[in-house]
Model the fold of this input.
Amino acid sequence: MGVLLNPGNTGFEEAINSEIYVDKTQLIAFTNKNLKTKQKNICISRPRRFGKSMAADMLVAYYSKGCDSKELFSNLKIAEDKSFEKHLNKYNVIHLGIQRFLRLAKNDVSQMVDFLDEDILDELMTAFPNVKKPKRLNAISFLENIFAQIGEQFIFVIDEWDQPFRKKKSNGEMTVYLDYLRDLLKDQDYCALAYMTGILSIKKYGEHSALNMFQEYSMTNQRELAEFTGFTENEVRILCEKYDMDFSETKKWYDGYNLKGLSIYNPRSVVMSMTGHDYDNYWTSTETYEALKDYIKMDFDGLKEKVTKMIAGERIPINTRKFQNDMTTFSSADDVLTLLIHLGYLTYDFATKTTWIPNNEVQDEFINSIEDGGWEEVMSSIRKSDELLQATLDMDQEKVAGLIAQSHMENSSILQYNDENSLACVISLAYYSAKNKYIMHRELATGKGFADIVYIPRKNVDLPALVIELKYNQSAETAIEQIKNKNYTKKIKEYSGEILLIGINYDKDKNHTCMIEKITK
Done:
């Protein structure tokens, strides 16, 4: 075994020996299907601590010559696949951890490429002493000679391929790195499979988009690999049963990553939650909140409004296609939000082309990021949300109207004042703390009516449901009548018990009124 060439199966053995291991070995069936085909170049991008390195170690353990991994995989799902034994430990594998090489080169990208080539060549020459050396000796030419002389093919597993773009945050030196990857992998007969992982997808960079031979699977479109991106809902249910943890609470904290309709949970956080038997910000604690803060404070028109709406629980339309797949090239608010999708701070629905904050854990990180200044209006509403919720439950109509009026006025610098969606956003901000005890639903009314907002109590929460109707220049009584006449309470089919009907009206003079009625369903 070598350091880069056929490093063995120790890394994957440690993973399956851990207290919690969720079997994702069917990913191997996918890579087996793409071996030696035009689809042999695969780039998987997902956020930090979402299992990228574990998957890389798994592929190295499965394909690598120089070790026997049959027993290691014998009780895992891949062992039942018809391709299992055909490719097991049959290939020379070159495993490259780009972060290590960038660190050794002290973040000098050109030197990093030299180190990569030198170390690959050194191990190849040791493993294949009888292969004739080419005149221009480097790793690529020696690989070509190995294939030409003895027909040996290689599998490349490249972990954190995008580290230079994330670490340097400058594109000036990157062409030499992209050129090297292209020359190493593109149209090379010695390459049977190339599997790259990172947070960012392949860099869009003029002629260097030649790396487009890769099949890309990113957080904006994981395609058929969605189930391997994190823990699925069924996998989390099983863990909750095993560790006697509340599934609905786990879902509130760590669910929310929507990948082609599949609900994916943050694996790092779920593991920490199960083993620690509590709920906390485990994934976000691995990086300081300034990382998020630096991006959401960028001066792009509409960015602050979009972030405010997402904090309030809304989904925002987004164009992800113009993003340049680096951490410095931004030309719009959508570019910033697309990066946050790749970093795991937002999730994305491919069908509706919308983005939102996925769960409580990430929501807390957004609040941490806006607390230090520049978002005083939003934070004022959030801080008073406990008071507003209690006033609502107490059916104190005058106090509710006053608090909502204050929130409405304070946030008019960010959101349009006389706009139905903006008013609904203000209401959601004003009731921010209700998210801890309620699940919020938004439904836009037809015509010129304002949005309806419904709060359903979470499991084991003994509070009434809230149905809110908003009106402009009419009356709070009219809002209550609309709730009754249109049978809005029937929309919450899964709920029975007390319901507070809340009608809110504001007029052209910016006066706010509120009416609250209690019914039992």
